[in-house]
From TrEMBL:
Keywords: Acetylation, Hydrolase
Protein name as it appears in the record: Glutaminase
SUPFAM superfamilies listed in its UniProt record: beta-lactamase/transpeptidase-like
Reactions catalysed according to its record: L-glutamine + H2O = L-glutamate + NH4(+)
Annotated InterPro entries: Beta-lactam/transpept-like, Glutaminase
Species in which this protein is naturally found: Pseudomonas cavernicola
UniProt-listed Enzyme Commission number(s): 3.5.1.2
NCBIfam families assigned: Gln_ase (TIGR03814), PRK00971.1-2 (NF002133)
Pfam families referenced in this protein's UniProt entry, alphabetically: Glutaminase
Family: Belongs to the glutaminase family.
GO biological process: glutamate biosynthetic process; L-glutamine catabolic process
Subunit structure: Homotetramer.
Superkingdom classification of source: Bacteria
Top-level EC class as recorded in UniProt: hydrolase
Length: 357
């Protein structure tokens, strides 16, 4: 955003606790906050000592993934995603000291799909605060991301904001103060700000395809409407939801956009405060427990990082106090998560000791 007042207004929507002083944060403050988030400064410094090795490590991981015979299955129920080359693989790392590393197809844009739920949730928390949790839970569902089963038992309250029903409710919160087009624009502007990149946009072909095949999402929205948990017209809410899922980004852009969650709420590139450290921790906690749907527990066991996946094959992973990682491989496993993306993050986490456990 070129206009300073508009940028500050958007940031205040993301975190109502933001103050003018926060907008004048410097990169040194980002680095200091990241160090505070680690148990010991020595641990923080030792983890950054490996930075010169990251290009070699990432290149090796990309090479390993290129030789994998089993790559998963692309999401064929959304036509544009069905045509993506399953051999694609990219990985990018943004450290909180504003260093960037990547390998493979890290500059190629892909549909981030449900990874966008991290950004819509951040904005919704800025608008509604803790009142949001009266409409969305904070527990892992244990069911598929588009399941309707638990909504009946729990009277229209989604288990968490990262399954489809939860993200649709979040979209309803964002829509409550805008028209649909304005809400979509607000989300895109926020993602552009986080990534420090004005070129990021919605793929209109994907957005249309989402609507054409969104029968289950229509059922979810209307069912929640029957319980009074959707306030706006379901068609308008779903329009917002489909469009933010259709945002296209590269691994490099996505790693930068997630950087504020790694650096205590501060954007590591611009030095601007996005959310409070407490809110960043809470979003990370939800990503750890709910970010990979009914595969979240196994992923926490294998990788040990707060993460959010999407059926476009992307995964955003956060190393609190250290780094934001984005990986993309279109083939999915049985839970709808990137098969090779998860495997790559397991290798990376193991090699550099980035698991939070």
């Amino acid at each position: 955003m070129k206009d300073g007042s508009a940028r500050e207004a958007l940031l205040r929507q993301a975190d109502c606790s933001a103050s003018p002083d926060n907008f004048r944060s410097t990169h040194s403050r980002v680095y200091a906050r990241a160090a505070e988030n680690c148990d010991q400064d020595s641990q923080f410094n030792s983890r950054f000592d490996l930075a010169p090795r990251l290009p070699e490590i990432l290149a090796d991981i990309a090479d390993i993934m290129s030789r994998r015979a089993s790559r998963g299955k692309v999401a064929d129920y959304i036509k544009p995603l069905a045509n993506v080359d399953p051999a694609k693989f990219g990985i990018a790392v943004t450290l909180v000291n504003n260093m960037h590393y990547s390998a493979g197809d890290a500059e190629e844009c892909f549909s981030i799909q449900s990874v966008s739920k991290v950004f819509s949730l951040t904005l919704a928390l800025g608008k509604a605060g803790d009142a949001l949790w009266k409409r969305v839970g904070r527990e892992s569902s244990g069911n598929a991301f588009n399941s309707i089963v638990q909504l009946e038992y729990e009277r229209g309250i989604p288990r968490n904001p990262f399954i489809n029903s939860g993200a649709i409710t979040v979209a309803d919160v964002l829509l409550s103060s805008h028209q649909p087009k304005e809400t979509i624009g607000e989300i895109v502007r926020f993602v552009r700000f986080l990534a420090n990149d004005e070129s990021i946009a919605i793929d209109p072909v994907v957005a249309v395809a989402e609507k054409e095949t969104g029968f289950r999402n229509e059922a979810l929205a209307n069912y929640m409407k029957s319980f009074g948990n959707i306030k706006n017209a379901p068609a308008h809410v779903l329009g917002v939801y489909y469009h933010h899922c259709a945002i296209a980004m590269s691994c490099k852009q996505l790693a930068v956009a997630g950087g504020f969650l790694a650096s205590g709420g501060v954007n590591p590139v611009t030095g601007l405060s996005v959310v409070s450290p407490e809110r960043a921790r809470r979003i990370n906690s939800l990503m750890l427990t709910c970010g990979l749907y009914d595969g979240s527990g196994d992923y926490a066991f294998r990788v040990g990082l707060p993460s959010k996946s999407g059926v476009g094959g992307g995964v955003l992973a956060i190393v609190p106090g250290i780094a934001s990682i984005a990986v993309w491989s279109p083939g999915l496993n049985a839970q709808g998560n990137s098969k090779l993306g998860v495997e790559a993050l397991e290798i990376l986490s193991g090699r550099v000791g980035w698991s939070i456990f």
